[in-house]
Predict the 3D structure of the following.
Amino acid sequence: MTEDLNTVSEDDLHAYVDGFATPQERERIEQWLERNPARAEEVRQWQAQAVDLRSLFGGYARSDARDRALLSSSSNDPSQALPSKGTRSVTGRLRAIAAGLALFAAGGLTGLYAPSLLSADGADRSIETADSLPRQAQSAFLVYASEVRHAVEVGADDQSHLATWLGKRLDHPLTIPDLSSLGFSLVGGRLLPVNGKAGAMFMYEDGTGRRLTVLLGRNDDNRETSFRIDSSEGVETFYWIDGPIGYAVTGEVPRNLLQQVADECYRQFDKNEATGS
């Protein structure tokens, strides 16, 4: 029993959350988490924190060639070693520092941005529109696609209720895309926040267990965009904004397949809106 509990280390869990684990390692860790619900809940909390951070500060993210050099010099200098005490391992802390550098290397401190981000009157609209959509879609995919029992709130067997319920919450008529022609069947869907308002997520799965998510959120600025692609640590997202709704299709599948899925979703959403169904 002791050996089983030690098969996944703290570093393994941080690598899983941060997207550094290989597909084989992810599968092994997910199996271990199913047997250790307390640690699984802790991992979900870490993932939720990542969702919040990306949503708030993703619009200011910048990378700099000096970031990697700074981390490298710190890790090689014993005087800069991080303390081992605490719930986060040294490797996890280094990853956290890397994430922080990526978020704040634009030159601003959190105190400079936080008031305008968190106040109702001074919110930065650019973070609430197209730029933040793929980040939120990728975070939602990472949190829910790996779930076995609670991936969705309403299953595919109650599809009519799912479409009606989420359509009312978004104040927009919804018809759930049929992706069976591309080998994906509906798992179900759930309500979740997108830019601080009610959003919807549909999840699909193919015969090999690969999953995709389709995220929908309100577009209060009424900006429109053509198809765009965003990649983050192996997770691909095709997204676009059409009228009052922003859409994002996300998965860990070949880009050409994901684009076919996005094209099919766009076609079906556009058709249903044109007919008013």
